[in-house]
TrEMBL record, chain A:
This is Spermidine/putrescine import ATP-binding protein PotA. Belongs to the ABC transporter superfamily. Spermidine/putrescine importer (TC 3.A.1.11.1) family. One of its GO terms (cellular component) is ATP-binding cassette (ABC) transporter complex. InterPro entries: AAA+_ATPase, ABC_SmlMolc_Importer, ABC_transporter-like_ATP-bd, ABC_transporter-like_CS, Mo/tungstate-bd_C_term_dom, P-loop_NTPase, PotA-like, PotA_ATP-bd. Keywords: ATP-binding, Cell membrane, Membrane, Nucleotide-binding, Translocase, Transport. PANTHER family: SPERMIDINE/PUTRESCINE IMPORT ATP-BINDING PROTEIN POTA, SPERMIDINE_PUTRESCINE IMPORT ATP-BINDING PROTEIN POTA. One of its GO terms (molecular function) is ATP binding. Residues 20-250 form the ABC transporter domain.
TrEMBL record, chain B:
The chain crosses the membrane at residues 7-28, 63-86, 98-120, 126-148, 169-195, 201-220, 232-256. It is found in: Cell membrane. Pfam families: BPD_transp_1. It is a multi-pass membrane protein. One of its GO terms (cellular component) is plasma membrane. Gene3D superfamilies: MetI-like. Keywords: Cell membrane, Membrane, Transmembrane, Transmembrane helix, Transport. This is Spermidine/putrescine transport system permease protein/putrescine transport system permease protein. GO terms for biological process: transmembrane transport. It comes from Lentzea xinjiangensis.
Amino acid sequence: MTGFSPAEASTPDTFAPVEIGLHGVRKRFSDQVAVDGISLNVHEGEFFSVLGPSGCGKTTVLRMIAGFVDPDEGRIELDGNDMVGVPPYRRDVNTVFQSYALFPHMSVWDNVAYGLKRKKVRGAELEKRVGEHLELVRLAQFAKRRPAQLSGGQQQRVAIARALAAGPRLLLLDEPLGALDAKLRKELQIELMRIQREVGTTFLYVTHDQEEALVLSHRIAVMNAGKIEQVGYPEDVYERPATRFVAGFIGTSNILDAEVSGVDGGFVALTAPGAVNLRAKFAGGVSRGRKVAATVRPEKVHLFDEAAEPPTGWCVLRGVVQDVVYTGVSTQFVVGTPGGELVAFVQNAQRIDDAGAPGQPVRMAWDPEFTVLLESSDG
Amino acid sequence: MKRRPWALGAVVAVVFLFLYAPIAWLAIASFNSSRSLSRISGFSLQWYEELADDSRVFGSLRLSLQLALSSAVIATVIGTLAAFGLRRAFPGRGLWTVLLSLPLVVPEVVMGVAMLGFFVKLAGVPLGFGALLFAHVAFSLSFVVVVVRSRVSGMDARMEEAAADLGASPFVVFRTVTLPLVAPAVVAGAAFAFLLSFDDVVISSYLTGVGSTTLPVFVYAQASKRGISPEIVALSTLMVTATALLLIIGVVVASWRARRAGSTAKLAG
């Protein structure tokens, strides 16, 4: 997919053995391909997120691992055993649904006990394990209530306790916080991290919320249109996006069309309209004259007026301030340049007073370390 | 605008009077000591005693109960299965759904003629219990399907997936999740079917045989032949009381269940 990025290299096997492995998994629904041949390894004890826009196939991946949907092609291995064709009730995998899917006719206690009862856990052992899991999600005092008598956040915690109590090898979470409001979502994110640390179970978390994925995960797989675009640590996918899609989907990226003019030491020299000394770190796979996209995150970009001089060696791009949006912590500057409109986030602690007004000419500058090279277009 | 609570109260009182006065009169008249229906002359249980001596009444009552019970059971089983069948997508599902509910809007007189023509004249089912059973199952089936289907299709399929996910085999999923969630609608559908059968006059009147008359048909026949006799009034009072009791039990059970299940167990009927 890409010739420059360290996407493959950023999938290190620092975790315990592979717990769930997907190999060339493909799924097609009547008129469209939902999952287009993906391969993925999740390690034991990991908090792994599958991140992508709605309709990218991430929920189908999760439902195939749970056993609700069978793939057309490929293998899904749990601890090395192929699970394709094994019904959901014989898989050591449990799911937390976005809609909670709690049993309304049972108490909270009975909901949490449901999976244990199916495993023939009875008597004191049952009491103990249900009690432990209600403690884990801090709902012990609500054991006798019905789900309908709880708030949305509490219901989702019951769903987590219910899925974990069954003692899965792998916990699947399908946008579990999607139905909650922003504040509650933040609280439950912290709660989820704590729970995962405490129980140590592998979590496979599906979400369309990039911030949630960055906050929660050990590693992230970014999906688009049925394919995996990049797998890596949160820092990897944010700082070193492997594709234009990843660069645009996670956070904001400035993208400049550029052409390789040579390799200079550890850097690739680039030419682009209005740019001076545009460079990126050399990562192989480039040749003179090749068309590329040079991207840089808005918070890496500094603004300089005519009086100030950017540090030597930095990439510089001339432009005119078009819009200034004050957001409290930082100010967003939209700058018109020969390569299009670019954005800079400037921390208000270090903001230059007179670089503010629309219409003012400025120079955008950044350390070439932060320039990321991508394919010139997604095609 | 000035509120007038007494005005609202008066309207409500008139409406309820309108609804219940005839029934109340029926009950009072059944305890009248004279044969007259327009003049109350004293308290007496004689019409009930005469009723108790009338073997035709008990024969009709037994037939009506047997018929209502068996047609309700059969219609509930078939109707519930149909409601589950209509849950999955298959070609022509819309058409089948419409076909299953069409009998709800066909005039009863027409249904009666059709049932007589088909079951008795064409298929040769003898008049009486057999013909009545076929007909009652046929017309109460639609009601069961409509009531159960509304519950089944409103059920979150994720709930059953969650049960399977937690290790329940398809049978256990059905027993522990699907059935308990659908049960209120099945019970409501069965009660509906029972009452429809027990109350039916029009269709049944085409199909009753010699010596096998349902209770409503018996009442209607007596009333139209001899006018409204005090025995018929007493019998009608008993029927109203029984039906009302059934309804009250249903409402009490439903609200008790609803309280236990939070707000989720709404009775569909």
